[in-house]
Amino acid sequence: MIILGIESSCDDTSVALLDCSEQGCVVLSEKTASQIDVHKKYGGVVPEIAGRMHAEKIIPLIEEILKDQPKPDAIAVTAGPGLITGLIVGVEAARTLSMVWNIPLIATNHLQGHVYSVELTPGQKIEYPAIALVVSGGHTEIVQINEPGSYKVLGATKDDAAGECFDKVAKLLDIPYPGGPQISKLAMNGKTDAINLPRPMIKENNFEFSFSGLKTAALYWLRDHKLAAVNPTGIGKIFSWLPSRLGISGDPITREDFCASFEQSIVDVLAYKTLKAVEKIKPKTLVLAGGVSANKKLRECLQKNITDNFPDTKFLCPELKYCMDNGAMIAVAGYYQAQKNNYTKWEDIKADPNWHLNF
Ligand code: KG4
Ligand code: ZN
What we know:
Elements: E1 2-7, E2 12-21, E3 24-34, H1 36-40, H2 47-66, E4 74-80, H3 84-101, E5 105-109, H4 110-116, E6 130-135, E7 140-147, E8 150-156, H5 162-172, H6 180-187, H7 212-224, H8 234-246, H9 255-281, E9 285-289, H10 296-309, E10 314-316, H11 327-339
Parallel strand pairs: 1-4, 4-5, 6-9, 9-10
Antiparallel strand pairs: 1-2, 2-3, 6-7, 7-8
Helix pairs in contact: 2-3, 4-11, 5-7, 6-9, 9-10
The structure holds 5'-O-[(R)-(carboxyoxy)(hydroxy)phosphoryl]adenosine and zinc ion.
5'-O-[(R)-(carboxyoxy)(hydroxy)phosphoryl]adenosine binds near residues 136 and 295.
């Protein structure tokens, strides 16, 4: 079955054409237009700009990936959750093509797409029951999946998502959006135990998260230790970093140490709660997916713990290029929906920015 996948829920316009069968899905062609360079100037995604940029790119991208390729049998499109300005562009494009080409339409949940991104690696297949930690700029959820299409959210963040926390703290360090990858790069040369930052909700007996307190703790620590780029500007800013860099501030903790300690607290909380869920549900597969699944420390921590403590569970995470939002993962999720005849008429499809993964 040839499936066209369309993703436009945030700041990536991404389309892909996949050939899916019981043996798995093969990407025939794919293209992504990232908007990061534009949103960077504003320190985060500006919904109106995102919507306009998706509208400019979506049809040319689809035309490009369909060149010299077979005609799709179905279209899978992200219908939510995400930014309404972006979702409606993808949904309207998919609706129109479904009507014109007379092929079925599949309304796909963005988080469900992230879960199936792991199956884009040849040979990787989710076995059920599965647990997924979906962790991105907009979401942090532990999900139980008993079979494709059946999702139960065991716990989610009460406030900021983990990726959002990475990005906001990066901003305090003057690192441009999205700062998660840069923080983890700096963290590689720092000491994880240099600062004792909180591990929010780690002791609570549930699968919920909260990252806004960690962000505030980071803000105060940076302010009190003059490691934040919050106050000084220009040359003052350069010199404010110098004392700690030279180790003459009486506070030998570096930016790298701060990043390592901060990253460790997020990884500790995410891993601890996820492994608790694994202990309780005893799944056949643990999936780690979403933008933050690109984080090396998080991947390694879960992999090691699963290997050492849960030998009956296999651990799957996506290839780095499929951690971020992409159309290919939407097509894979759409394939499983198509297997269950879970189609939506083009007249009925609606973008739902708050579509919960509980169905
Ligand atoms: O899934 P995604 O592309 O978009 C959303 O659905 O939100 O995730 C983007 C998020 C950003 O917050 C970004 O900082 C974070 O993923 N991210 C990382 C890393 N790479 C991307 N966070 C921590 N470490 C990384 N290596
Ligand atoms: Zn995403």
